[in-house]
Amino acid sequence: MEQKLFEKFAELFGDADGARFYFSPGRVNLIGEHTDYNGGHVFPCALTMGTYAAARARSDRRIRLYSMNLNRFGVVEASLDDLTNKKEYNWANYPLGVVWAFKEKGHMPPAGFDMVIWGNIPNGSGLSSSASLEVLTGVVLCDLFGIDSLTMTDLALIGQYSENNFNGCNCGIMDQFAVAMGKKDNAIFLDTAALNYEYAPIRLEDAKIVITNSKVKHSLVDSAYNDRRRECTEALAALQAELDIRSLGDLTPEKFEQNKHLIKDPVQLKRAKHAVYENQRTIDAVAALRAGDIEKFGKLMNQSHVSLRDDYEVSCPEIDILVDLAWQIPGVIGSRITGGGFGGCTVSIVKNEAVDPFIDTIGKTYLEKVGHEAEFYTVDIGDGASRIL
Ligand code: GAF
Predict the structure, then answer these.
(1) At which residues is there a site annotated Transition state stabilizer (predicted)?
(2) Which end of the chain is less enclosed by CB atoms within 10 A, N or C?
């Protein structure tokens, strides 16, 4: 891989002398969806698929960026003196947003840089290609310019800050955190209120994590995501009229049931119900995993999907078809939508012997029902972002 990137780097920028090589993963969330901006728990893991970069510092203030996946945009040129989101920059608004966020947070890089990237996370699939690129850029900047005061958690927060304030998606911290802090063969049990986390080994000797890409992305993703976030904030405000809580994640399901009459709006009520119960499911799922009860973990994944479909309303017909089909296949331990929703991917835990039937049966039926093919990835859990060479 590094060969391919260094060659492109030399072709575009004269030579690759002194260029360095980096990797940043994508992520899949096993359970705990739309809880991160509600002060709840999440349970994602980094993938071995991700984004690679060859990068080198410059001595002037220019920034030159090139994507081997989106080469139709050519070399995107910007300057440290003009860090604004521009439509024509397209994908490059993600790395540029991180440079901007470094500046905003008092870590302005002293010079520009050249960077070529290539990634194997399917775009728009909900596997966090944008967070991967954001954290990658943070790692590149710190390494190229010797910025050693920032931790990986800081880089996750800077990535989220850039996405919220430079790229207009009001996302929580889960994706950037998973990408920055990932650990091979472990998922991350993260309390998003305190940013406390624990690694939980995923030892699935007789099963695999299978991601199914619906290959649909419904248009309102960002606006509907921001709507969900606002509805939760409004529900919280209604509860705070009588309860001393900082977030929906502070509520147990019991306490929610006792106080839900405070939320008058039926839509806000459904959103809050999901956030509270999903947080509890995530806590329960990690406990089940630690106790070796993978069947219970799978049941909680299935319940998570139902809640995301009916109460949070972030699923879509294509994803529901994938999940319904998965639930019928013997050997599927659990299956649910993963990520922000409105298309993207499902995540399933599938017994080894059921992986081929899973892919065959769902692949055929999905094509018949939806009219295009789904894609399947049997994934491994990898490490967080870092310099490789
Ligand atoms: C997207 C967001 F970026 C995350 O912060 C999270 O809210 C997720 O949707 C839903 O769980 O990936």
Answers:
(1) 27
(2) C
Shared-domain flag, residues 226 and 256: yes
Same-domain status, 70 and 186: yes
| Residues spanned by the domain of 311 | 207-379
- Confidence band (pLDDT; 50, 70, 90) for 220? low
- Asked if residue 317 and residue 185 are part of one domain, the reply reads no
Q: What's 182's domain CATH number?
A: 3.30.230.10
Among 27, 30, 34, 195, which is best to mutate for testing ligand 1, by the most ligand atoms less than 8 A from CB? 34
Domain match, 219 and 197 both: no
- Report pLDDT digits (tens) over 147-164: 999 999 999 999 999 999
Same domain flag for 191 and 294: no
Are residues 343 and 370 located together in one domain of the fold?
yes
Whichever domain contains 305, its CATH number is 3.30.70.890
| Cross-strand partners of 189 | 198
Specify the DSSP class assigned to residue 91: G
Clarify whether 175 is annotated catalytic: yes
Which of the following is catalytic: 175, 191, 250, 311?
Answer: 175
Q: pLDDT band for position 221 (50/70/90)?
A: low
Measured CA to CA, the distance from residue 22 to residue 372 in angstroms comes to 34
CA-closest residue to ligand 1 atom 7 = 34
Q: Do residues 63 and 80 make contact, with C-beta atoms less than 8 angstroms apart?
A: yes
How many structural domains are present in the chain? 2
Residue 185 marked ligand-binding? no
Distance 173 CA to ligand 1 centre (A): 8
One domain for residues 163 and 44 = yes
Q: Can you give the pLDDT at residue 67?
A: 98
Amino acid at 196: N
CA atoms of 54 and 8, how far apart (whole Å): 9
Structure tokens of 264? 């008058």
What tens digit of pLDDT does each residue of 312-355 get? 999 999 999 999 999 999 999 999 999 999 999 999 999 999 99
pLDDT cut 70: percent of the chain above it:
99
